Amino acid sequence: MDNSSFRRFFGALLTILGMIVVLFACVAFLSDNNPILGMRITKWESLFPFFVGLVFLLSGINLIRQL
C-alpha cells in the first residue's frame, strides 16, 4: 500500500469515526438525561465527545484534502 492510498484510507476512517462520535454527542445532548447505550450522560458531559469527534472529523478531512 503506497503512502497516498494509506493516507486516503486513514483519512476516511478518521472522518467516519468523527461523524459517529459527533452524532453520538448530539443525541446525548438532546436526550434529557435518559440512558444512551447504557450510559447516563449529562449535557455538560456530552461536550467532551463532541470536541473529540470534531477533532477526528477535521483531521480526517485534512488528510484527504492534502493529497
From TrEMBL:
The chain crosses the membrane at residues 12-31, 46-64. Keywords: Membrane, Transmembrane, Transmembrane helix. The lineage of its organism: Bacteria, Pseudomonadati, Bacteroidota, Cytophagia, Cytophagales. This is Tripartite tricarboxylate transporter TctB family protein.
